[in-house]
């Protein structure tokens, strides 16, 4: 056992993989090499200083938990960082990971008041209710997509239980900031002057606690625990669907808390009316206060989020890369963040500055639908070769007939073969707007139907 660092680390990796998404795992844990296990210290090698800092900042709790669980609480983790000397004879040096966040005193994790508070009140049957201090209003970017939700949340944070926004019900798709926002509200209240008790729990965890309570005959304790909180945050209530007993007890807790003027905050991936398998009287209560939705972030908000993220990590990237990312990743904020993080990690792995080329490579390797489809670059290259015009000419302002025709066809194929929006396609053609792209597609369709030689050229090109 002493020397088997590979086995030890593999067992940790299994747990870690369970806990975080594929992307985080690939980016941050795949490149790690276990080096040795001696005197209850597991040493792992990471490729750069940045890696070390990132892991320490974002995954220290996870790592500590996994080490506790897989190896034992008296085991420690140490990093061996490969110093960037620019040649093959890299001499790794070792830094100790402050890997005891839960048990050491003031160490920068959370605020010190939190550490001093009675931790036992944040646990029930071994489940933890603490908020994640990383989610704040400060780092929640405001945009059209979240303005109502954010301002309601902000009002609640100032006067919990007193505004008419009780309950607050936030809904929206995955990765749009529901958890971030409700935790920001919770953190603001918990750190406020009245030191109110804020409990954050996912509805799944709530349901599991409830099952434990039933199993162990501790329902009394379960209810009492929830009835004494000042602010209850229940994340992802869609998990209550079809769970009648759980809804029943939640209904009871909800009524009691609401009547005594305590704040209730809920999130869901759907609006109350679209929740199926939920008791009608519960759904009607969800609508008592304010219901607000979070939408997909618009372009400007995405730019702001990228800028903010880069600033927080102390990284500068060129404006064209920021625009490229904002145009290309328009699904949700979690995905956008994932791409940014992978990009930073890639830059640190290949020891290069972040530029457009690297951004494109990164996006290709992680966003699967981009990976499996023909890219705009490829379409532009094929079209330019076919018509013997340069790629630059496809993107510039030239109005020469052959070039306009080539450009329009390239846009047409970009629409057909990629999942890019019209706006994004315009961006790849010298920053044209979406109406130009629409016009191009219409022209191609018209010509295709009316001009036989045009039709043939288009069909030949499609084969390429
Ligand atoms: P959801 O709970 O809706 O699935 P999350 O709250 O987990 O989404 O958000 C996903 C990621 O995006 C988190 O890392 C979060 O910090 C970030 N995020 C979401 N909205 C914003 C925003 N408006 N500003 C900054 N970061 C955001
Ligand atoms: Mg969430």
Characterize the structure shown:
The protein has 464 residues and is α/β, with parallel strands linked by helices. It folds into four domains: 98 residues, DnaA, N-terminal domain (GMP Synthetase, Chain A, domain 3, 2-Layer Sandwich); 183 residues, P-loop containing nucleotide triphosphate hydrolases (Rossmann fold, 3-Layer(aba) Sandwich), CATH 3.40.50; 73 residues, Orthogonal Bundle (Helicase, Ruva Protein, domain 3); 88 residues, Orthogonal Bundle (Chromosomal Replication Initiator Protein Dnaa, Chain: A). The chain has 21 helices and eleven strands. The strands form three sheets. A five-stranded parallel beta sheet has the order 8-9-10-7-11, sandwiched between helices. The chain has a four-stranded mixed beta sheet with strand order 1-2-3-4. Strands 5-6 form a two-stranded antiparallel sheet. The longest helix has 22 residues. The radius of gyration is 27 Å and the shape is globular. Bound molecules: adenosine-5'-diphosphate and magnesium ion. Magnesium ion binds next to α6.
